[in-house]
Amino acid sequence: MATKHEQILQYIDTLPVGEKISVRQIAKAMNVSEGTAYRAIKEAENKGYVSTIERVGTIRIERKKKENIEKLTFAEVVNIVDGQVLGGRTGLHKTLNKFVIGAMKLEAMMRYTEAGNLLIVGNRTQAHELALKEGAAVLITGGFDAEDQIKKLADNQELPVISTSYDTFTVATMINRAIYDQLIKKEIILVEDILTPLSETFFLKTSDKVSKWHELNQQTTHSRYPVVDHNMKVQGMVTSKDILGQDFETTIDKIMTKNPMTVSGKTSVASTAHMMVWEGIEVLPVADDSNRLEGIISRQDVLKTLQMNQRQPQVGETIDDIVTNQMELIPGKAKGEEVYSCEVSPQMTNHLGTISYGVFTTIVSDAANRILRSYKKGDLVVENMTIYFLKPVQMESTLEIYPKVLEVGRKFGKVDVEVFNDGILVGKAMMMCQLIDRT
Predict the structure, then answer these.
(1) Last residue of a domain, which of 153, 172, 187?
(2) CA 380 to CA 342: how far, in whole Å?
(3) DSSP letters along 398-423, please?
(4) Residues 70, 180 within the same domain
(5) 77 found inside a domain
(6) Structural domain contains residue 314
(7) Are the beta carbons of 164 and 143 closer than 8 angstroms?
(8) How many domains does the chain have?
(9) CATH number, domain with residue 288
């Protein structure tokens, strides 16, 4: 049976998009305390199907699909620009397709403004009116108010008119940055994106007998199953090794591995890969905050996803992308060895203008990754890294990176990396890596 907290989340999820939500309203509707209602609303906000806006309140918004994560709702725009909603609050849940900067003549501005857009403009009442009639929302910069007829039109059209104290350029930069951050998030694949959902997951209960495992094994050909109690909370994992030699009437809770490792839907696939490699796990149960089973994820799912993701074009660059894109192989530098060069750009420095520790770590990791790939085809996860020393390196310096394989086995590799600047040794590190075969 679902807990009160889960019942509230289910109730919020059924509310129509655009509806305003309050702690008092939820507490009354679900007959719970205001503290319980508040915690549930906060979790709903984290899950992305409500949004809280200062001076407006909390509203139900559409849950974004992975492919649409780069699109912002007007509610999110209000929060990004510290805005004030002047009219059209019922349209805050809507998604904007693109934004248009109104720094041109009216006729030209309207050629670029269409339904689903956000027009960013100053105190130009006629532009506000024409944009709303075209089906576009309006963001007024410079802290100006809107005319009363514009507010009424916004309410009728259910399109927000927002005012912000920032100038047009600053607002455009802030929205661009928010979209860019969303694009980076889009590339980070989470367990919830690839898990086998509960409706398709085979599991056993603690009260089931060993005979039930044999039934499932014949039906599915799988040998590993999560074990749950009567509340669907994960209690253990059972595999063919646990079953071997056991009486058919023995209950599963007597032979299962108790308190197994679990992951949440918000765990990244990369992090899950590390856990599976280090612990030698083939299948992990996926559980929510209450440890209730939501599905499973297998090592095969993880490896396929990591390999597929490496082939995808980059959309939003992280600092790691900037660093690794700078790394180039120096041809013929040293016979029988791979040597790389990397220029230290301003983004790669700390507040003192010298190379940051994080960037140095990325350089070392990438160099080790590249040279190990020439020995073993597959992916790797870093198990241990020791940085012996790192001297300050100024921006716009060109580094030479010398990775050297000390030892490589079937499932591990040890690499020593030396970094030079103008022939002087400026950094030295050693890495131990776990290798994952691409099967």
Answers:
(1) 187
(2) 22
(3) EEEEEEEEEEE-SSEEEEEEEEEETT
(4) yes
(5) yes
(6) no
(7) yes
(8) 4
(9) 3.10.580.10
- 144 lies in the same domain as 175: yes
Q: Give the pLDDT confidence of 407-428 residue by residue, as tens digits.
A: 888 778 899 999 999 999 999 9
Taking the C-alpha atoms of residue 409 and residue 35, their distance in angstroms, rounded to an integer, is 55
Q: Is 143 helix (H, G, I), strand (E, B) or coil?
A: coil
C-alpha torsion angle, residues 401, 402, 407, 409 (rounded to 10): 50
Cα–Cα distance between 64 and 75 in angstroms, integer?
A: 13
pLDDT digit string, tens, across residues 270-296: 888 878 877 888 899 999 888 999 999
Identify whether 313 is part of a domain: no
One domain, residues 38 and 72: no
CA distance 275 to 284: 9
- Choosing from 284, 308, 332, the residue where a domain stops is 308
323 plus 432 within the same structural domain: yes
Q: Is the pTM of this model over 0.85?
A: no
Residues 404 and 201: their CA atoms lie apart, in Å, by: 45
Name the burial class of residue 87, with classes exposed (0-12), middle (13-18) and buried (19+) by CB atoms within 10 angstroms of its CB: buried
Q: Count CA within 13 A, CB hemisphere, residue 292.
A: 11
In the β-sheet with 283-287, what is the strand arrangement from edge to edge?
Answer: 196-197, 293-298, 283-287
DSSP 180-191: HHHHHHHHS-BH
From 391, 413, 416, select the one nearest 402 (Cα to Cα).
416
Q: Which domain holds residue 52?
A: 4-60
H-type alpha helices, 90-231:
106-112, 125-133, 148-157, 168-187, 191-194, 210-220
Together in a domain, 54 and 112: no
**Spans in the chain with pLDDT lower than 50:** 65-69, 311-315, 335, 439
Q: Are 233 and 290 in contact (CB under 8 A)?
A: yes
pLDDT in the model for residue 70:
52
Q: In this structure, are 183 and 208 located in the same domain?
A: no
Q: Is the dihedral of CA 42, 48, 49, 52 positive or negative?
A: positive
CATH of the domain at 337: 3.10.129.10
With beta carbons less than 8 A apart as the criterion, state whether 180 and 316 touch.
yes
